[in-house]
Design goal:
With about 1100 residues, the protein is of the alpha+beta class. Helix content is about 15%, strand content about 35%. It folds into six domains: about 210 residues, Thrombin, subunit H, CATH 2.40.10; about 110 residues, Pdz3 Domain (Roll); about 130 residues, Pdz3 Domain (Roll); about 220 residues, Thrombin, subunit H, CATH 2.40.10; about 110 residues, PDZ domain (Pdz3 Domain); about 120 residues, Pdz3 Domain. The strands form 13 sheets. Strands 53, 54, 55, 56, 57, 58, 59, 60 and 61 form a nine-stranded antiparallel beta sheet that branches. Strands 8-9-10-13-12-11 form a six-stranded antiparallel barrel. It has a six-stranded antiparallel β-barrel with strand order 2-3-4-7-6-5. A hairpin with a 5-residue loop joins strand 34 and strand 35. The longest helix has 13 residues. This is Pro-apoptotic serine protease NMA111. Nuclear serine protease which mediates apoptosis. InterPro entries: PDZ (IPR001478), PDZ-like_dom (IPR025926), PDZ_6 (IPR041489), PDZ_sf (IPR036034), Peptidase_S1_PA (IPR009003), Peptidase_S1_PA_chymotrypsin (IPR043504).
Length: about 1100
């Protein structure tokens, strides 16, 4: 049975549970009644009913971050108290507003949520309501009875005011079970009626004809029109205690003390027939029937006992409750009253167990003591003591260290939501304070062991390695504590600043620049400076592993972990022996092995056959250069349209020297530089961090640097760079060997090139994300499938292409569960020419790599997306025979011409070339393929006189014309700056967005790429895929202007913003800043330290 509860609280952006609205296909038909009988009542009640717009800012206990609408109603006008459901008040941090019927909107603050039952209270300032006359709705729990005509008044289906009719059918329905791992009410009866409530009506008053609330709407069954109401008896008690703690004139006061007792036992109400089968004695049944009210039909039976609770090992499932403190107790209400009145006191309980009468003395526990009121936030994770709710669901002890949201650091290690942490960094963990005490001892980039258990596999502990953040992806660890006096969660540092400074010094010893000709020993202390390898949850299903690398992060073999730790711990820099490298670049490490060196007699025909027979297979030759690349992207910086957080792929070492190693890999694995990269080598069992140093702005490859000294002496002698063979290029029909990794072992197969220059055309994705353009790739007759990547080589193991994965993102609304992808070969010349520039000294901005600042290359490109067109089609468009013959002479095989598909918005060619133009020649040389354009741009790098301009001949509007087109210069850094404002991520528009051909004229430098669930952006509808061009009337053309404008805004201040979406449609939104839970901050890559640094722009002090 599936039920709807917070589903009655319509959610804007929840990350779990089914869409119940689509399942509720049984329409409710309101019963016929005299409308005049209810008109006066409804007119009186409606002004006191409010729409509650709630936003759960953090995952906590049973809830995930979400935004939605629900209902509440005023129960104390003088003190400003609104009654609603517990799942609307939320157990964790929440921001809420109440909207009255006349559209007056005021902030409300939670002042109480019951630990068990589904009710809670918000407080508001009564003086803030200036234009509405309303009266509070009185509570009358005693009026509820079977057959009573009722009306449910609320925000049903977000219709502002909806009035649903019904008749109470039952007063003794079992409390509904909503989720096995979430909030459920228990130890109470519910009221049932066929009123058909749906999303948005949670917290609605159930009123009678006198205008009294006789129950509180809570949930309903998805597939029927049944609604479930909470009785109000315990609600009235809690309300009176809150009223006594608050001034009737101002509504201000301290947090109310509402005694709540518990045995940590769940009881079920069973009929006498079933109780007799459990062994109830006939005499006991007769006594109970005589002492109970007329119509009593059953007794309370123990259903479950929480381990470690007051009743653990004393009460058992199946025990029949007879007396409490000498009073016959057959009703939930009486039992709860006795428990609440005897908190921290011993009570006497009489039960019958299998026909035997037993008397047990148990101390009643304070229910609030096992209800968490604080949590630790570290690296996006939310960790707090295990609540009674979840302890009951999972059968664990209350108070254990519970992972409500694994965030980045824990999810990267494979620790799931709902995990219980038992050990961390070899320290026993049973309380949250013990975990907090370990944090100051951890340095950035450290790998520490963690032991945890899950409720789905409770009998076996699991072990993983947690890598602490080396970059400042997240704020420093904080402890949030609930303060019901103000309705806020107050944050304080979990680690003292001096401890943070100490750990930073430990992690970055001797930071600084070093000479280019340094030895291995100069690099050893910089290993931890390299980037090291899910919520808060974002809108694009992050946390889903990428297709071509679907592997759980925490599933590494324990033996591998032990080996890695040992190798890293035994690095002896002074004993490193550098192999002979006289035949290679100075300092370059190569294996002295016939695998790499070709047989000296191979040029003699008489020895060729024998030499080839003895030559090792290509996979054995290339294996020392193959690397498994693991990439993890923090949820705090999912830039450039990236939606997944975990990627795997095979890379190849293209450079290996004393000072630096470089690995080439496709951008479907390394999509952005704001990520943690870990490299596992096929030749030696070790895993070390990598640093993204180059992302080609157009082509589908990236370069990742690593520190060779981290391999140790043995590893450095076994790992080597592949021998690249950029020329001659592959041709159709050439035999090649496809070599890659499976379980970190090289495998290969012989294939044949079917197309050596396939023009790649990847459709545009929705939403825009990384997409290769203007590439000619290699196609084979057979491969290992779309998830297998590696290299293409000749029979001697010389690498001729990178066998890469390409993303072909699905369109929005596609039914496919995962993004489609495919594999093709990237000619190795594209990569080798970039590597040559890096190793020989490039002309671009410098980046710190292994302690040395190295200039990175700049790439001159024509920011135009081309597609090919057959000459036969071009003739139909009017292309002259002379040009057709000239193009055939240039390329008699392909017989094609390049056509402009579109210019990138903001490029220098944007106003010169138009869609449909055909490029005939550059500098009087005919052009037939993408490489011709690439070579022409490359020639400009050595010819300053050209000024970066190309003399092109194009076919435009039926005639050939000569034009001058200016090229653009781009670096390989990718996006290096972002701002988080109101929970949305803004950045400069990346290439895939600019490829759409549109940038707002008002300014295009502030592009919203994603937003967080539970943020102000989520609450007020500031979605991604749009530009923010104005804030409060002030232009925001770039990130600097945006930061300056937002810095002037105050917390709780409504802001008017003007946005433009990808279709060019403008929209004006208003949203309120929440600097308490969502400060404004910036993340920027610092090339001088190779660290992503976080800086707060505006926050509450």
């Amino acid at each position: 049975m599936e039920l709807e509860w917070e589903r009655d609280s319509t959610r804007i952006g929840s990350s779990e549970d089914e869409d119940v609205e689509d399942l509720n296909d049984v329409p409710f038909k309101e019963k016929t009644d005299n409308a005049a009988d209810w008109r006066e009542t409804i007119n009186k009640v409606v002004p006191a009913v409010v729409v509650l717009r709630t936003t759960a800012c953090r995952a906590f206990d049973t809830e995930l971050p979400s935004s939605g609408y629900a209902t509440g109603f005023v129960v104390d006008k003088l003190r400003g108290i609104i009654l609603t459901n517990r799942h609307v008040v939320k157990p964790g941090p929440v921001v809420a507003q109440a909207i009255f019927v006349n559209h007056e909107e005021i902030p409300v603050y939670p002042i109480y949520r019951d630990p068990v039952h589904d009710f809670g209270f918000y407080h508001y300032d009564p003086g803030a309501i200036q234009f509405l006359n309303y009266e509070e709705i009185p509570l009358a729990p005693e009026a509820a009875c079977v057959g009573l005509d009722i009306r449910v008044v609320g925000n049903d289906s977000c219709e502002k005011v909806s009035i649903l009719a019904g008749t109470i059918a039952r007063l003794d329905r079992d409390a509904p079970t909503y989720r096995k791992d979430g909030y459920n009410d228990f130890n109470t009866f519910y009221i049932q009626a066929a009123s058909g409530t749906k999303g948005g009506s949670s917290g609605s008053p159930v009123i009678d004809r006198q205008g009294r609330a006789v129950a509180l709407n809570a949930g309903g069954r998805v597939s029927t029109s049944s609604a479930f109401f909470l009785p109000l008896v315990r609600v009235v008690r809690a309300l009176r205690l809150i009223q006594n703690s608050r001034d009737s004139n101002t509504g201000k006061g301290e947090a109310a003390l509402i005694p709540r007792g518990t045995l940590q036992v769940t009881f079920h109400y069973k009929g006498f027939d079933e109780v007799r089968r459990l062994g109830l004695q006939r005499e006991t049944e007769q006594m109970v029937r005589c002492a109970s009210l007329p119509g009593e039909t059953g007794m309370l039976v123990v259903h479950s006992v929480v381990p470690g609770g007051p009743a653990h090992l004393q009460l058992q499932p199946g025990d029949v409750l007879v007396r409490v403190n000498g009073e016959i107790t057959t009703q939930f209400l009486k039992l709860e009253t006795l428990l609440d009145d005897n908190v921290d006191q011993k009570i006497e309980i009489q039960i019958e167990r299998g026909g035997t009468s037993l008397t047990i003395n148990i101390v009643v526990q304070n229910l609030h003591s096992i209800t968490p009121n604080h949590f630790l936030e570290v690296s996006g994770a939310v960790i707090h003591p295990l609540s009674y709710q979840q302890a009951r669901n999972f059968r664990f002890h209350c108070g254990l260290v519970y992972v409500s949201n694994p965030g980045y650091m824990l999810s990267r290690a494979g620790v799931p939501r709902h995990a219980i942490i038992k050990k961390f960094s070899d320290a026993e963990i049973s309380r949250l304070e013990e975990l907090i005490s370990v944090l100051p001892n951890l340095s950035p980039g450290a790998q520490v062991p963690i032991e945890y258990i899950t409720h789905k596999d409770r009998h076996r502990s699991k072990f993983a390695l947690v890598t602490t953040d080396c970059h400042q992806w997240y704020d420093t660890p904080k402890i949030y504590t609930r303060d019901d006096s103000f309705g806020l969660w107050i944050a304080r540092p979990a680690i003292q600043p001096e401890a943070l400074l100490l750990s930073s010094c430990i992690a970055n010893p001797g930071q600084g620049l070093k000479e280019e000709t340094f030895a291995f020993s100069c690099e050893s202390n910089l290993v931890e400076d390299m980037p090291q390898n899910n919520n808060l949850e974002l809108t694009d299903n992050m946390g889903t592993c990428h297709d071509h690398a679907s592997k759980e992060v925490g599933s590494r073999d324990e033996c591998d972990v032990a080996i890695n730790t040992q190798v890293l711990g035994d690095l002896s820099i002074n004993n490193i022996v550098v192999p002979n490298s006289s035949s290679h670049e100075a300092g370059e490490i190569k294996l002295e092995n016939p695998v790499i060196t070709e047989n000296a007699n191979s040029n003699h025909p008489e020895f060729a056959t024998e030499a080839e027979a003895k030559a090792p297979s290509p996979d054995r030759v290339i294996e020392p250069a193959l690397v498994l690349v693991e990439v993890n992207v923090p949820s705090s910086c999912l830039l450039d349209g990236v939606s997944s957080q975990n990627f795997f792929g095979t890379g190849v070492i293209v450079h290996h020297s004393q000072g630096m190693g470089l690995v080439a890999v496709d951008q479907n694995t390394v999509a952005i530089s704001a990520s943690d990269v870990m490299l596992s080598f096929a030749a030696f069992p070790i895993e070390i961090p990598g640093q993204v140093v180059f992302l080609h702005p157009v082509y589908n490859f990236a370069l990742v640097a690593y520190n060779p000294s981290a391999l140790g002496a043995v590893g450095a002698s076994m790992v080597c760079a592949a021998e690249l063979l950029p020329e001659p290029p592959l041709c159709s029909g050439d035999p090649v060997y496809l070599v890659g990794l499976r379980n970190l072992q090289a495998i290969s197969r012989k294939s044949t090139v079917t197309n050596a220059c396939l023009s790649l055309h990847v459709p545009k994705a929705d939403p825009p994300c990384n997409r290769a353009i203007n590439m000619e790739v290699i196609e084979l007759d057979s491969d290992f499938g779309y998830m297998f990547t590696g290299v293409l080589s000749n029979k001697r193991g010389k690498v001729q292409a990178l066998w890469a994965s390409f993303s072909a993102k699905k369109k929005s609304g596609s039914s496919a569960s995962k993004d489609p992808q495919f594999v093709k070969g990237i000619p190795i010349y594209m990569i080798s020419q970039v590597v040559d520039k890096i190793t020989s000294g490039a002309n671009g901005p410098s980046v710190l790599i292994n302690g040395v600042k190295r200039p990175m290359p700049l790439v001159r490109i024509l920011e135009v997306e081309f597609v090919t067109r057959l000459l036969s089609k071009a003739r139909s468009f009017g292309l002259s025979d002379d040009w057709i013959q000239a193009l055939i002479k240039k390329d008699p095989i392909r017989r094609q011409v390049l056509r402009v598909k579109g210019c990138l918005a903001g490029s220098k060619a944007e106003n010169v070339l138009k869609e449909g133009d055909m490029v005939l020649a550059v500098n009087k040389e005919p052009v037939t393929c993408f490489r011709d354009i690439e070579n022409a741009c490359k020639a400009l790098e050595n010819n300053a006189d050209k000024g970066g301009k190309l003399n092109m001949t194009i076919f435009q509007r039926g005639r050939a014309v000569d034009i001058v087109v200016e090229t653009d210069i781009r670096d390989g850094n990718g996006t290096t700056r972002m701002i988080n404002w109101c929970g949305c991520i803004v950045q400069y528009p990346h290439l895939a967005v600019r490829a759409l051909g549109f940038l707002p004229e008002e300014g295009h430098g502030v592009y919203v790429t994603k937003y967080y669930r539970g943020s102000p952006a989520d609450r007020y509808g500031l979605c991604g895929l749009r530009w923010i061009v104005e804030v409060n009337g002030k232009p925001t053309p770039d990130l600097d202007a945006f930061a300056n404008v937002t810095k002037e805004l105050g917390s709780e201040e409504f802001v008017r913003i003007r946005t433009i979406n990808l279709d060019g449609k403008p929209q004006v939104l208003t949203l309120k800043q929440d600097l308490h839970y969502w400060p404004t901050w910036e993340l920027r890559f610092d090339p001088d330290t190779a660290i992503w640094r976080r800086e707060t722009i505006k926050a509450l002090q």
